[in-house]
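Thread: Newbie trying to understand structure tokens

Hi all, I'm a second-year student working on a class project, and my supervisor (Dr. K.) asked me to get a predicted structure for one chain before our next meeting. I've only ever worked with sequences, so writing a 3D structure as a token string is new to me. If someone could post the tokens and maybe explain what I'm looking at, I'd be very grateful. Here's the chain:
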Amino acid sequence: MTRILVLDDNADIVALLRMVLEQRGYQVMTGRNGREGLHLLGESPIKPDLIICNLLMPLMDGMAFLDSLRQEVEWSAIPVVILTAMTAQAYRDAAFEHGANAFLAKPFRLDELNRTMHNLGIIPNMH
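---
Reply by user tm_fold:
Sure, no problem. This is what the structure looks like when written as tokens:
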């Protein structure tokens, strides 16, 4: 089963993504910030196939999370989609410099998320 880790401090975004992704057959783990994301990665014996991460979060933001993720050999190849309301070109450029694989602006459309995931090789596990 394809596993996705969602990191966002907005409970509504997390709930929406969990509902949509689980309906498509994905297993979803969630955290409220980068620190929780690193903890979940360290605790789980099976790494996620994709991480969807916000930029602005408390305790550890998306950029710091990307830096930590990319320094760990076992996690460095996991694709990361940044999903953020911080849409200025400087944020987009910085996200890619820190190791993001894709960048989506909030509010996002589900077809944009689907296309981005498909481009990263993440295909739904429909039963």
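A couple of things are worth pointing out once you decode it. Strands lie at 3-7, 27-31, 50-53, 80-84, 102-105. The first strand starts at residue 3 and ends at 7. Feel free to ask follow-ups in this thread.
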